[in-house]
Amino acid sequence: MFSRICLDDWFEVGKEPEGFQNKLWFANPISGQVGLFKYGLSSSSQFKNNSNGFDEKFTCELARIMNIFCADGDMAVYKNKQGFVSYNFVQESQMLKHGHELLCEYYSVEH
What we know:
By secondary structure, the protein is of the alpha+beta class. It has helices spanning 54-65, 99-108; strands at residues 4-6, 11-15, 22-27, 34-39, 73-78, 81-87.
């Protein structure tokens, strides 16, 4: 149904500390496209997750069909670790706000 791309030839450009999953930033050596590869869970996580990326790919495709903005991504593998790479959509002049930051702002305002 969905193919899996291999990130073994991409350049690792950093780690992402947010969240429960292990995450690494990669850059495609040919196109320069940057993506966040999410795989497994960090050792500090109390949650069990055996996601191989299908759930996030399905969500991306569903959002696209429903005309809802969503970061594009692909199921991926890096050094035999299966996961999901979400492509960066933030422009140089912009700053990424994580979902939990937006929720905290929303719920800190009295309704």
